[in-house]
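sry for the spam today, last one i promise. struct tokens for design, 117 residues
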């Protein structure tokens, strides 16, 4: 994301929007990304996806209205079309890292922060 933002500043056009997300083949849920990170880290813990509509009142109380609203919005948010992504790639030269490559870089950083044992 940082590299894409810098490319947009250096090569982009004022007022133009760019999709700075990952490769279409790497589009997964948050739970799947967490589980892949756990696998890369050698951690046995796994998490499940829960749709916002399936959340209990206890979950809403624990996580608060803001996170519940974000979850509900994410369930409804359209994903960028591949043509929009390819236009970003063409216009500013943005080539995202693969998800597993990014997670492989993230895990040691999280370990250094003491977030993963």
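last one done:
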């Amino acid at each position: 994301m940082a590299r894409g933002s810098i490319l947009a500043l250096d090569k982009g056009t004022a007022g133009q929007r760019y999709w700075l997300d990952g490769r279409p083949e790497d589009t997964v849920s948050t739970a799947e990304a967490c589980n892949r990170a756990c696998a890369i880290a050698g951690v046995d813990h796994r998490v499940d996806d829960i749709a916002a509509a399936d959340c209990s009142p206890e979950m809403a109380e624990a996580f608060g209205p803001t996170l519940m609203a974000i979850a509900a919005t994410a369930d409804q948010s359209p994903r960028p079309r591949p043509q929009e992504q390819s236009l970003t790639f063409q216009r500013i030269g943005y080539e995202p890292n693969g998800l597993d490559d990014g997670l492989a870089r993230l895990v040691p950083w999280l370990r250094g922060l003491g977030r993963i044992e």
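The first helix runs from residue 2 to 11. ok im logging off now
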